[in-house]
Amino acid sequence: MTILHYEISGRADGPSLLLLHGFMSSRAQWRPNMAGLGQIARLVVVELLGHGRSPAPEEASAYEVASYVDAFEDIRRAIGAPQLFLCGQSFGAGLTIAYALAHPGRVQGHIFTNSRSALAPGGRLGDEATRAAEADRIETGGASVIDALPLHPRNAKRAPAEARDEMVRDAALLSPRGLANSMRHTLPQLSMLDRLADVAVPGLLVNGTWEKAFQPLRALAAERAPALEIIDLEGGHSINLEAPEAFNLALGDFIRRHNGLV
Asked: Closest by alpha carbon to 69, among 21, 102, 20?
């Protein structure tokens, strides 16, 4: 049984859509999308280890990508879904791509958003020593260090106020050990660029064009995986928050087409 916290809402008779947020976020990441997406899908909102209501195990193995893949499979079985649609945001994208690679027969379609970790060329995700030092600083310093990190939700200035306020409240639940272990053990395994073309299910990248640093990776994804659909929207890194109506329309169209509802 999975230790990841998850919640189910939306259309009970619809296809199941697993939604996974990014680093330092929570279930609140999807708040502006819930009503729209819930009209077409059964939403399965999952929280990363050390985030929100999920635990923060001590064991390094719990944070490995393979362990997350097993956890998603446990969730699929628990909710009785023959197949899933997947949507990974930022840090979550590498994990949902990994599940699509491991269990293509269980996936109807895969969606992801801007994610430099999932598309890092050659798996290069920064200097290992620097990353390890930052993980130690977070675990040792605790809340005072977490509150000052650039990725803290309070800095999500373009997010709707209600969603940002909820993410800020949930940030108080962030586990220093969970964040540190995510940096130590999950992040180095997240790059899926070299395997993107091997994903054997329909795929969609919803790209926020205002994040300039991500646009070369968007081009790499298009080159490496020609079958990948890409929709460019005006907005930044958290495109589902910054352009929720357009994001919902893009996902709704993708799900309907690949669920045989059109």
From this structure: 102
pLDDT digits (tens, 9 = 90+) for 74-86: 999 999 999 999 9
**For residue 127, pLDDT beyond 90:** no
* pLDDT: which is higher, 214 or 128: 214
**Where residue 88 sits, what CATH number does that domain have?**
3.40.50.1820
Listed residue (93, 185, 92, 191) closest to 139, CA to CA: 185
Q: How far apart are CA 251 and CA 255, in angstroms?
A: 6
Asked whether the predicted pLDDT for residue 9 surpasses 60, the reply is yes
Apex CA 206: angle with CA 98 and CA 248, to 5°? 110
pTM: 0.97
User: Does 97 fall in a domain?
Assistant: yes
* Count: domains in the chain: 1
- For residue 122, the model assigns a pLDDT of 75
Determine the straight-line distance between the first and last CA of the chain, rounded to whole angstroms: 35
1, part of any domain: no
Distance of CA 196 to the CA centre of its chain: 16
The answer as to whether 221 is a domain residue is yes
Question: What's the domain range around 151?
Answer: 6-258
Q: Domain for residue 204, yes or no?
A: yes
Short-list 22, 44, 27, 39, CA closest to 94: 22
Q: Tell me, what amino acid is at 36?
A: G
pLDDT digits (tens, 9 = 90+) for 197-226: 999 999 999 999 999 999 999 999 999 999
Strands (E), the chain: 6-10, 16-20, 42-46, 84-88, 107-113, 203-208, 229-233
pLDDT class of 125 with cuts at 50, 70, 90: confident
Question: Residue 56's closest CA among 127, 146, 144, 133?
Answer: 146
Tokens of 24: 């330092």
